[in-house]
Amino acid sequence: MRKVYARRRLSILAAVTGLIAMAGLFNSPSASAALPTPVSAATARSYLATLTVATEDRTGYDRDLFNHWITISGACNTRETVLKRDGTNVVTSSTCAATSGSWYSPYDGATWTAASDLDIDHLIPLAEAWDSGADSWSSSLRQQFANDLTRPQLIAVTDNVNQSKGDQDPATWMPSRTAYRCTYVRAWVQVKYYYDLSVDSAEKSALTSYLASC
């Protein structure tokens, strides 16, 4: 019953919350902004305790089923919006491409001055979301998830670090910068909880361990 209710709730959120975000929260983000602050460790632990534990299933997954990097405001798509939000002194062209600025990657502690050196990481990878319940979502909800700037789901990081992460969960991959790991797992649990996604047993064990030391 909880799953049925949650899916209905998420359908409403896709139609209402997503539109509100696109109309207001996504406009002209501050260059000094960053990943939305995740819930506290205590809240994350309480959220984790309620998540369904289930075996993951990737049957039917295709990245194109998540319409990502949609137009957010004017000429700016989601990637460009996050680059502007997460960078310092970011200058953009008339097409919203970042032409200069500085970006600090919290996963590995590297600083970059070329936008081409950054990827926008889906903190919960799209494939991981699919495995955990997004296979039953509507296209509009998958689009909301893939472009969610309201939850701590999108962040600019070093491109090859993001590529090494791939679709892994915290049981097999964590940021090399240990000072960021608490933020990372708090954000991971918050997003999974908000979207009513499941966790597998190894993932839950890893999250429990990391959160215990937060």
From TrEMBL:
Pfam families documented for this protein: GmrSD_C
Task: Tell me which residues make up the GmrSD restriction endonucleases C-terminal domain.
Answer: 113-208
InterPro entries documented for this protein: GmrSD_C
Going by the UniProt record, its keywords in alphabetical order are: Endonuclease, Hydrolase, Nuclease, Signal
Gene Ontology terms, MF aspect: endonuclease activity
Q: Which residues form the signal peptide?
A: 1-33
Name this polypeptide is given = HNH endonuclease
Q: Which organism is it from?
A: Streptomyces phyllanthi
